[in-house]
Amino acid sequence: MESELQAGGGILSHYAAFKAILTFFFALAVSAASFAEESAPSAPPSQVLVPFSATYQAEFSGFGVTAERRLSGNQNSWRLDFSAHSMFAKIEEYSRFTQQGLRLIPQHYDYQKSGLGKDRHTALNFEDNASRVINVYDKSRSINNAPENVQDKISYQLQLAVDIANGKSPLKYLVADGKKIREYEFEISGKEKLNTSMGVIETIKVQRVRAEDAERVTNIWFAPEWNYALVKLMQQEDNGKSYQITLTKLSIDGKEVRTEN
Question: Fewer CB within 10 Å, N side or C side of the chain?
Answer without folding.
Answer: C
